[in-house]
Amino acid sequence: xxxKIPATIIxxxxxxxxxxxxxxMLQNTQGRRIALIINEFGDLGVDGDILKGCGDExxxxxxxxxxxxxxxxxxxxxxxxxxxxxxxxRKDKPDHIVIETSGLALPQPLVRAFNWPGISTQVTVDGxxxxxxxxxxxxxxxAHSVEAVDEQRKLDENLDHETPLSELFEDQVACAxxxxxxxxxxxxxxxxxxxxxxxxxxxxxxxxxxxxxxxKLPVDILLGQGIGAEADLASRHELHHHDHDHDHDDHDHxxxxxxxxxxxxxxxxxxxVVQASNIIRxxxxxxxxxxxxxxxxxxxxxxxxxxxxxxxxxxxxxGAAPRVTRLVVIGQAGLDQVAIEAAxxxxxxxxxxxxxx
Length: 357
Description:
By secondary structure, the protein is of the alpha/beta class.
């Protein structure tokens, strides 16, 4: 009997902490060789680049595949299935496949895809993991920035479902085998316990609800669940069965825009975060993410902001790579790109910027 490769699907809204969770997993693989499928789209594949920086033979750069054509549940046949077939055709097959979905993805259609001929005989869904922003859900917002989720929706030209945020959250919970309540460091113990109890009531029987902060979860808990979710679709009910064949002309894709800003080294990371947060507030920027070179630091600084709150960490050495700063700015149409670029450049002394230019 052929042993199937286990695959873990990780879903959750923008800013919930999916990428942070996966990065921590990659740093603690315990010898497993992981292949990643990242459902990133936009001008700069930051999530994929962050995860390619894991710098370990258990997750080589060629093991990271980015699907940048939009929401994964809407491009299953055209995008996801061919990607899986290429992974499975390799001689050096991975020990485990991890799929990070777009925050807008409905998990049920993706689980259903594992019954596809040619896939079903080789891969099984080890488990569906839904990452929840504990603070946002406690405050009734589901995502840290509802505006940023709406922006992500509008930028995706292949998205063919207009599921309300509350219903999409319920679908993600209904499909989950494990629910990870992230950012519990922003809640007190009573708030966290109330949320965990509520999610237990909303989830299927036997679903684990786990509290964590910064996505720090032992890999033996995250991987190796052995669920076989593709054979249990009936219990993973969708609030609505969505038609994936209708016209896209009613989507207002021009309501949002994004652009990349290239800078030189920043002199001080903490000061730059404060300045960038002020720029985000001043220009109503919904999302800012990318990488920065910090003067005197050999490591690359990763920045991810949802609204004015910016998370940073040093992820990998620059090595021979150019010491530059690259940021994606995303917001509603009409962003003053010139003013935003000028404000970001003003954070860098002229001598450092001249070195870059």
